[in-house]
Amino acid sequence: MLKSLISIFLCLIIFTISPLYDVNAAFLYKSYVVWKDKERDVLCDPYIVQNDDWLFKLFEQRGEIAQKDFPEFLSIFKRINPQIHNANRILPGQHVLIPLKILRQDSMLGQSSGIVTIPLVTISSLPEILKNYTIEYKVKQGDYSAKLVAQGYNIHNSKSYDEKERFYREGMKLFRIINPKIVDPDLIYIGQKVYVPNPSIRNQPWYKSLFDASGNIVEEIALSGTDASRTRETAAVAVLTRKEDIAPLSPLKQLSYALDARLLNKGIYYFPMQGEEDFSLDLSRFPVVELKNRNRIIFQEDDMREYALNAIRSFWKNVIIVPASQKSSSEHLFDSVIKSVFRDNIKNKLSFSDQGMEVNIAARWILEKQLGDENKAHSVCINFIENQDERMPDSICRYLESQGIIVKDIIKDGKITKKYKKKDVKNRQFDKNITFINTLEIKDIINDLLKAMGYRYEQNINITFPYEGIQVQALANLISLKADAPLIVDFGNIYGEAVIAIKRAGMEVVQIDTGDNINTAIPKLLKGIRLDYTIDPMFFVAKRPEKYNISLTIPGFLVADSEGNNILIATVFLHNELIQYLRDRNLKVVIVQPQRHQD
Hints:
The two termini are 36 Å apart. By secondary structure, the chain is of the alpha+beta class. Helix 5 (145-152) crosses helix 6, helix 8 packs across helix 10 (330-341) and helix 11 (394-402) packs antiparallel against helix 15 (576-584).
């Protein structure tokens, strides 16, 4: 099946780009997710829904799925995408998994990890090939890149606004790759020679394969020692890239990652000067960090002349000169840049309340940033850690991201921590170690809680005990304890001297009043069973010092049962990612609250 899958997939790709194929081909990698469905491994393609997408169209475009299998793969799609409530109505921007193939066990390298990476044949000299579909143009007064692309790419003749937007984005991305010497498309000067993409490129059969699902140019990865003559099957052996094999990042690359910035450290940047030779900035010596808001950071090196700084300032109004060397240590570089760029928007503590749970965040730097097209403010928490073991758990990262907080952990030896998967944890109602108690009746809460904790609990059982010389009968609720006599739970039916008489008969009584709520009734029950517990327990979520850690204070009770198992009885609603985190710590979780729907 593996050979068949790879052959079909590569045939599709090679057919798509065959007009460009040559012996100098390199390899392009695409990652796929392996998802468990009914004890089967299903190869899935992560995808962001675009305008005018519908499910059958997505299946049809992927070629591997025969039409006769559509009902089965539609069922798989629904199960592995529980966030999609109506498969007939998928919306732009939704993240989905498209099932491609049912795999035999261990048929692909890296399959057990849930991620496989398949190399696809691509072109090693993409900019040169693309230049065959461009127009050479000399910049005139009043020209700017967006105008040239819009005119040269015939964007105004597009049928719809969405099509215009798509062609404009694609045209600008092609303009960048075809003109690698232009570092900033917003800065072109009169007389400069540029290449503008021609609309004929859109008619090429391989055009769509230039862009990924998000509309970005697919990047190439050239492999050392690649034998271009190898067969399709051997060329398509799946490769799982391990983080341990990645070389440590330079401090500047770490900084760019932490700030979601672009590092410009190759090529020459030319600044046109009035009446004199253009000033050139060698980015390999004086790299620039470009933020998403287009602010640029440059470092004031010892060998950078004052006239160079003045030239840069005159063209880049939003440039920030940082009084530090790019060769500084990571921590010194971060500190200098963050203080220069963010100034009053830096803190090291952040707290918020979620459904009554208190979240306290401590980090080396916490920044308020504007991220993405929606221009929403996010808090970014940046920390240096000693090793991968100290990194923030994936579930906590996903939870915090849902609250508008991004976690960036950087290892001191020069590596960044592996990226967590941005998939939502499925609703966990059917996990045997998770119980939701969705009632506010104290009697029902006690019943469900005892069952979740593994106790035998019987309601309205006849008991007899001596009272004033006679044998009295009564209805009671009994908890069976292993080593002790049964424990009676009374909800106001046994009065006065009768309680004393029952205790004399060798039985203990837990009396829960009609006015008790869960925060008073549960401690009475736990004391009656003689279990140790902590009220409103606090969890430090990462294996690192408290100084730069995150704590969760969850209303409820952390209980150690008679067999040494830990049970968290939460009296507030918990996000699914927090439940995942608690289960990863081998906690049994009982949530005493009506369950709410999560998007």
